[in-house]
């Protein structure tokens, strides 16, 4: 079966573009609880209208409610989910494990998709999510082709990103924006620190990184590989871009569809897509791209397409030698200076105002000052392409196909029209009976002419079967009314919702007792006694329990949904999330660093009130907070070849990144070469221990990264004081 093309619609304009281009499904957020808080998210009234409009033309609608939820938000989120469920939404895309758990138990017919924010990359994680009722998984963008296939083989529906922006951190594992800028990516408000400039230091010495955007990846584009994914069994091809323009949505959907229909994209196609938005393209982790194949260290913004270079600058007039056509109102950018403008005024070599200049000519424009001869000029907005797309969207009318059987057996009988599709069937009849034809009888040709007048309707007739008696006659107005009545009744039937099934929440978790504190270390030197429970994702040792990292499943502690007993790093931020962890068979979990002291107290109170025992959780009291977990390594990319093979530089030197704001982070890879970024500042809440114990938390977690043995001992002394 051909996979669906899933389009991002952050605005009505983008929705119109997606439908006109031929998408099979759309996704968008609501005013709250979505991971794109700054998109033009639809309100509930508009959402209902969008769902009805899409369903009438055979397009599915998925709504993103993919932020983590705090205790005082989950009831509002539930009510919003219930509302859109009553509208007939095809699925919700969710990150928060507690929200998934709650919806599964209370709204059993609501389809749940696991967001890419859950960073799923292997079959075991999928099998765990199935226990919570998840029916589809949006895979982590870090998955290789082999990992995608393994996930498909579990039998669950698998959705894969095929075009758009890449996060350099595993989605759902990024706290950089939250910790440094007070804007949580897990709450939809990412400040995009990965797109900022950084200086790399090795042992305190500045390193030339050949470009300052060392955390900024190129955009993903697997459009030419979509048939490979289809053959693998991927059910949904997802395009990123709820903050992008309507032309971007139109072109990306159109070109995915073109390739799925076994047509090659030509040069013009590729150029049209690039000019709508690109940071240069990569085939990403599916094909193990790394280093410079993955990253664009020179710039983080839209690149457009190259159209020429500056050959002369005279005050505010810039002379450009064109390699591509240029129109008035195009947007351009000067690569060397990273300056841009709209082409409001352009002139030929005789200083005459013009609106168009073909390629292979020079043109004069008015633009920004400070430009240099030789600077490459890129087109970042094609005004003529935008006009063409706007007209395609304006004249498009996405319709469903329906079939009909039309019957009128004899004079004196009404005409009956049965309209049907794969799932729905209705019947209507004329208000009057047929009369004896005096001249031309009402025949198939006459009826087809009237029944084909569906240009402005939601549906059109694909096939009509006729059973007509001899010499029957109906006025034209009656035939038209029959058509209108039939399509209106069919519309109502297609939009009719089944009764919403809502159950009382009755889940009772089995009580689990956490019996020890956790001390996570990065080196054996940090193990300072034999009585504490030490774990590490850096090395294996008989004296230290293993912590599996973001992609692995073996380990006593898991940074994801592995085979161990304790779950870390999955943003447990409400009491239902703790219940979800227990429902999947774990003993305890670590409360998310996104929770402040008040929110921790609320989790503990709600859990105890509902389940009548204390939540078996850990609260971290000491750490240098992890900001990112990446598959990319800035160190290896800068100093070696970016392949991350036989490197270990980060274990022999101290590497730090410094932003333009002076804030620093340090880098340390794990044993599987995931590069981790840590804040240089210590987050210590040891003084709050008694308060947390009064909430019902019995055990705590400490994380040591680059601390010396004496610093570890100092933290121990403070804890045991």
Automatic annotation (TrEMBL):
Protein name per UniProt: U32 family peptidase
Coiled-coil zones: 253-280
Keywords associated with the record: Coiled coil
Domain Peptidase U32 collagenase: 377-494
Naturally occurring in which organism (per UniProt): Holdemanella hominis
Superkingdom of the organism of origin: Bacteria
Keyword Coiled coil set for record: yes
InterPro entries registered for this protein in UniProt: Pept_U32_collagenase (IPR020988), Peptidase_U32 (IPR001539), RNA/ubiquinone_mod_enzymes (IPR051454)
Transmembrane segments: none
